[in-house]
Amino acid sequence: MTTSFPMNTGDGLYSYSKNSNLQKEIIDGTKEMVRDAIIRNLDIKNILSSSNTFNIIDLGCSIGPNTFNSMQHIVQVVKEKYHDNNLEFQVFFNDHVNNDFNTLFRSLPIDRSYYACGVPGSFHGRLFPSRSIHFAHSSCSIHWLSKVPKELLDEKTLAWNKGLIHYVGASNVVVNAYVAQFEKDMEMFFNARAEEIVQGGMMVIISPFTCYTRLMGFFGSSLMDLVNEGKLDESLVDSFNLPMYFPSPQDMTKVVEKNGCFSIEKMELRYTKSKILDEVDAKTLMLTVRACLEGVLINYFGSKIANEACDRTILKSEDISAWMKVNYEKPSTLFVVLKRK
Which residues cross the membrane (predicted)? Predict the structure, then answer.
């Protein structure tokens, strides 16, 4: 069974829709690479057969506006390449069942050039009929695991991650548990996509790289501050772990090759220029992370503790700014282009 970890809903102050600028920068920074991948690798005449409908999925779409940005770009590039006025586009927006689909569809662009459909469910399993998808896209999504590695939940094991909420700075046993869970999840992910994507179809995966893992530690330190002040039971922090793993090129190559149904057309670590990081805007950066993590924190600690931990983390601007100055030019994005064999 997979667990859902939705982004902050609605369009309020701390919502994902208002605080996803970093993800937008990642998408914008890879647009030319997506365009190049489609121009070089997509043969629409072979994959459409007698149909004139091109089916696209966005896996882990959340609530916008970034998903609309990505989908319109893909549609536009395909149109530019083929100049076929009879070609129609169907876009399937996928996320967990408790994703805020209401906000997503209320904000659908009026001038979109595709038909839109919502598909609730975990992308770690099957979502579509066999050989029905021509292009799959996933940005800033696959680092979310289906669940916390079970080894981390047992206080009697070496994987008990005392005082930490993630694998950064943890023991090798903890790191290996995260890697193993990622590999299990990706085995399900690629098995499902191999059934759904037509021969010759494409998949683009864009994932934040490991330089962002340190950001999780700032939230962990805020939780430990509450422990030291007697406001939170330490055992609760010890038993809490974020269900996220940021894959390396080696991690991704291993899971793709194990599946065997996709060829790797391109895999690149790249630095995506960030206005947020360049300007050392620690508050904006942490509001973005808050929009992603707050729901997980509320589910485990309750809203009062979660809100206070988030507020305290944003106040750690000096430490966060120092981290940003050191890391802003390091590779921050893993870009992967795959083709169904």
Answer: none
Neighbour-count burial of 183, counting CB atoms closer than 10 A to its CB (0-12 exposed, 13-18 middle, 19+ buried): middle
CATH superfamily of domain region 21-340: Vaccinia Virus protein VP39 (3.40.50.150)
- Contact yes or no for 336/269 (Cβ under 8 A): no
Give per-10-residue mean pLDDT for the chain (341 aa): 77 85 87 95 86 94 92 96 89 95 94 96 96 96 94 91 90 95 98 97 90 78 93 93 94 98 95 62 78 89 91 82 69 90 96
Residue 205: partners with Cβ closer than 8 Å, 6 or more residues away: 138, 139, 142, 252, 334, 335, 336, 338
Q: Are 60 and 122 in contact (CB under 8 A)?
A: no
d(Cα 135, Cα 125) in Å, to the nearest integer?
A: 17
Spatial distance between the Cα atoms of 254 and 186, rounded to a whole number of angstroms? 10
Where are the chain's structural domains? 21-340
C-alpha to C-alpha distances, 282 to 133, 218, 224, 305, 319, nearest whole angstrom: 40, 12, 20, 22, 9
Tokens encoding 19? 């605080």
